[in-house]
Amino acid sequence: MTNPSEATGRIARSVSRLPVFRAACGFLGGVLAITVIGLFGGVVGMPLLIAPFGASSVLLFAAPDSAFAQPRNLVWGHLIASTVGLVVFWLAGAGLWQMALAVGAAIALMQLTRTVHPPAGADPLVIMLGGGASGTFLLFPVLAGVLLLLLIALVFNWAVHGEPWPRRDIS
């Protein structure tokens, strides 16, 4: 028969490992995602990384069950916010009020379409501050990068957690 204090000790050790396991998953997922996207961009000769993908990785690998980390939010959030940023830039240029307008409009459109992905709120700023206002920006790096990020998250979260991700439909 097992000593109750030994059983309590085992439970306490396994519970204390949980945050370490989660942190390790977040670390490995983030390293893997950014490395693969960066290397793939080099192979195809197109930049596929933008700063908001780092923040997206936080949600995908540290909080994969969050409503904000769901695939439709990830993909549509980035596409909507980047489209808004490009349209505002093309119509009004880049300045403080244009950046503020683009971020606000991106937030509102993500809310209306139920595709809020907080890291995508930075996409209009990336476009206006980085001069990434070409017509191809929406395809490369945004769409190609976000689809690659989604594929990595699907495989990684399934492999680590042993069950399909996303585990629930957020409507």
TrEMBL record:
The keyword Transcription does not apply. Pfam families: TM_HPP. The chain crosses the membrane at residues 20-40, 46-63, 75-93, 137-160. Residues 19-164 form the HPP transmembrane region domain. InterPro entries: HPP, TM_HPP. It comes from the Bacteria. Keywords: Membrane, Transmembrane, Transmembrane helix. This is HPP family protein. It comes from Paraburkholderia acidicola.
